[in-house]
Amino acid sequence: MIIGIIGSGAMGAGIAQVAATAGHTVRLLDQTEAALARAQQSIQANLRKLAEKGKLTGAAVEAAVARVQPTRDYLDFSDCGLVLEAIVENLDAKQQLFRQIESTVSAECVLASNTSSLSITSLAAACQHPERFIGIHFFNPAPLMQLVEVIPAVQTRPGLANEIKQLLHAWGKVPVLAQDTPGFIVNRVARPFYGEAIRLLEEGLADAATIDWATTELGGFRMGPFALMDFIGHDVNYRVTESVFTSFFYDPRYKPSFTQKRLLEAGYLGRKSGRGFYNYQEGAPPPEP
Ligand code: NAI
After folding, report:
1. Which listed residue, of 44, 160, 165, 185, carries a Cα 20 to 30 Å from 149's Cα?
2. What is the pLDDT of residues 48-87, one digit of tens each?
3. CB 97 near ligand 1, within 6 Å
């Protein structure tokens, strides 16, 4: 089956790598050439690292890299069996995208979104054939994280969720079925993790490095909340919080923070822009708890 992926940022590139390594031809589309070039470079670099560690042969790496075909043209999705989007976390943008691509894919093609928080049912509702629509939510970095949430919309045809779960098993993932509620499972549980950490910071009780140090060294978390938000990207993370907050009818438990909003406004998006809660620019002193 040929897989189409729209959006070649952190998630789209990672998912393309997973599908190509599993043997699929992948048509990877982005609105910018620069993003496509970055994605190809990162896929190549990641796979070559695996070869250096002896986890893949050199031939397998080159074959997987060659299976990822960059494109700017929706018509290249005409022979895809599954098209998954990983563009900006915005309902209008995603709905508009699905309206556009539905006429260019085959009748059998499954359409999916990697959204972290938006309603799968309202994305499906933008399609003429909502029964073929489903949420497939990977975690970052997609090649390393095993968990994938599979979220049927109200309109999704019976049986599709199981077909997607089987596909994900074949990709070496651990799929879990989630209901179509804001943030699904993990992103809902994670909201208070980020929110309380920012509140601690705002109240001046500890700085970011100390909170991260305490959660990782003492709490056993793999990453602290600030390092994790910087890794995810504040554009993505803030929009997810905003979406979960509004979708839960402004429940204060999920209220977004001004501190994070200001980072976003300043263009301090985290690792990807060189600055977030921490400074990743060359020569910057490492944070000390
Ligand atoms: P990103 O900002 O790294 O990449 C988004 C890409 O989409 C960019 O390359 C951009 O040029 C492209 N794009 C935007 N609009 C487009 C359009 N209309 N057509 C074609 N390409 C378009 O974002 P990231 O982090 O990859 O997130 C993408 C999606 O995945 C979002 O819905 C996000 O909520 C979700 N997600 C993000 C995670 C994360 O940790 N960053 C984890 C799991 C899901």
Report:
1. 44
2. 999 999 999 999 999 999 999 999 999 999 999 999 999 9
3. yes
What's the 97 CA to ligand 1 centre distance in angstroms? 13
Residue 176, Cα to own-chain centre: how many angstroms?
16
ipTM: 0.98
149 catalytic? Reply is yes
> Cβ contacts of residue 115 below 8 Å, gap of 6+?
89, 94, 123, 135, 137
| Set 89, 137, 237, 243: catalytic member | 137
Distance CA 138, CA 223 (A): 18
